[in-house]
Design goal:
137 residues; alpha/beta; 4 helices; 6-stranded mixed beta sheet; 6 strands; Transcription Regulator spoIIAA; STAS/SEC14 domain-containing protein
């Protein structure tokens, strides 16, 4: 995979712009508070607007499970804003290795409804291929 352009990073996450034309969010195995998690997603939205990217790859790795209040905020606050402000339309989730983190990601996905096309992947390469595809099918 080609190198990415780093946009933001802290101890919990790295946000970058991938050559495939999407924003990439790589989670680290570090616990983050609800305000820190919301701030990371606000940076993701800024990166999407800045790069005019309508797709996101989120690589969960060994990310700790997300608190339920952040899951709700993502589905009912952040997602509608990302769709409206950046044209967010596709999300590729490279699943975490821990069952609780996988469950949390799938819970958020089930709350998102039809506003977003998303798929879950075992590898970054498969997620990248789907995002680079002509329509993300």
């Amino acid at each position: 995979m080609n190198s990415t352009l780093r946009y933001f990073s802290n101890q919990a996450a790295v946000i970058s712009y991938a050559p495939g034309g999407y924003v990439r969010l790589d989670w680290q195995p570090v616990a983050a508070s609800a305000p820190e998690l919301r701030a990371i997603y606000e940076h993701v939205l800024q990166a999407m607007r800045h790069h005019r990217a309508t797709a996101l790859m989120t690589v969960h790795n060994q990310r700790p499970p997300m608190p339920p209040e952040v899951q709700t905020w993502l589905a009912h606050n952040w997602l509608p804003r990302a769709v409206a402000e950046a044209g967010y339309g596709r999300c590729a989730v490279v699943e975490a290795t821990t069952p609780l983190s996988r469950l949390a990601a799938r819970t958020v996905g089930s709350d998102m409804g039809a506003a977003l096309r998303f798929r879950y992947f075992d590898t970054q390469e498969a997620a990248d291929e789907w995002l680079r595809g002509p329509s993300g099918n």
